[in-house]
Design goal:
By secondary structure, this protein is α+β, with helices and mostly antiparallel strands. The protein has helices spanning 14-32, 37-40, 86-100, 115-120, 153-165, 180-183, 186-196, 218-226, 239-242, 274-290, 297-300; strands at residues 7-12, 49-55, 60-66, 71-77, 105-111, 124-132, 135-143, 148-150, 170-174, 203-207, 231-235, 247-251, 256-259, 267-270, 292-293. The protein folds into 2 domains: 7-103, Aminopeptidase (3-Layer(aba) Sandwich), CATH 3.40.630.30; 150-300, 2-Layer Sandwich (Endonuclease, Chain A).
């Protein structure tokens, strides 16, 4: 049984709870990150939707806000509460509020140290990095009303890690030989490792040509060797299946990163789109059922 979280998220009325909100933000931004105190509060605070995380004792441990500019910001979790899903829960609450308002997208300015966190929660990087309050940031954006365009390696890494992170118990990967660069990204390898070693039944279906096995990054090959009960590899044998040009990653949560031309990274990321994900899953499973267990597994010693 998965233990219940030791915190809860609530909507915070700024007029009555600003002391709690600013207490967390001051501890994280001003004390810890040395952001000038005059920048911690701004004119958007009274106009924004705020969420507050409290621990089991009712103490404030995290904050976030959604501004009228359709931007998420002031995301902060006190040091002692990090690593327990507080940030994910705060972000989820803010995205849900944006969706409730009918907004088509939300954006944010992510500190570089938090870029991977936002990426695995469905935000894709956009443009160059920039300085804000003396800290390097990256603009990131998430569409709420449709698919997001993926155009380069940074976007592909973020898209793939998001699909992996949001998976419940099953992942499907249809890859190409040139995917070694994408699959070798530390962010993506970490996401696969977290999923594969989580304490629940899980399955990763990996569909690739036998000759492509040798091109897999060594850390991924080692993970496959270590967890043969999680990873199943098959290779297409039907000529029609072998001629399929597309590639992608999907999960059992309605998410998929699909590339119509599998040799290229350009494609689209769809989140919480059951119809789109089901379409891609059905195509994948038809090929999977006609494919054979990858004989190169014997070479790996699995």
């Amino acid at each position: 049984m998965i233990p219940a979280p030791s915190f809860h998220i609530e909507t915070a009325d700024y007029a009555t709870q600003q002391a709690a909100l600013h207490g967390v933000r001051h501890a994280v931004f001003v004390i810890e990150q040395q952001v000038p105190v005059e920048l911690e509060v701004d004119a958007l605070d009274p106009l924004s939707h705020h969420v507050l995380a409290r621990d089991a004792d009712g103490q404030p441990i995290g904050t976030g806000r959604l501004t009228p500019e359709r931007r998420i910001g002031r995301m902060a979790v006190v040091a002692g509460a990090r690593g327990n899903g507080v940030g994910d829960a705060l972000l989820e609450a803010l995205v849900a509020e944006a969706r409730r308002r009918g907004w088509g997208e939300v954006s944010l300015h992510a500190q570089l140290t938090a870029r991977d966190f936002y990426a695995r929660n469905g935000f894709l990087p956009e443009g160059d990095t920039f300085e804000e309050a003396g800290i390097t940031h990256q603009t990131m954006r998430r569409r709420l009303d449709g698919a997001m365009r993926v155009a380069d390696l940074a976007g592909a890494t973020a898209a793939a890690s998001s699909v992996i992170h949001r998976a419940r118990r099953r992942l499907r990967l249809q890859i190409r030989g040139d995917d070694s660069v994408l699959l070798g990204q530390p962010q993506l390898l970490a996401a696969l490792r977290r999923f594969a070693t989580a304490r629940h039944d899980k399955q990763v279906q990996l569909l690739l040509a036998e000759g492509d096995l040798a091109t897999l990054p060594a850390p991924l090959t080692a993970l496959i060797q270590r967890l043969p009960s999680v990873f199943e590899l098959r290779e297409p044998v039907d000529p029609v299946d072998c001629a399929v040009a597309s590639a992608g990653i999907g999960n059992d949560n309605g998410d998929c990163y699909f590339r119509p031309m599998g040799e290229r990274l350009e494609g689209e990321l769809s989140l919480a789109n059951d119809a789109r994900a089901r379409q891609q899953d059905e195509l994948f499973q038809r090929i999977w059922e006609r494919s054979r267990v990858c004989s190169a597994l014997r070479v790996l010693g699995v």
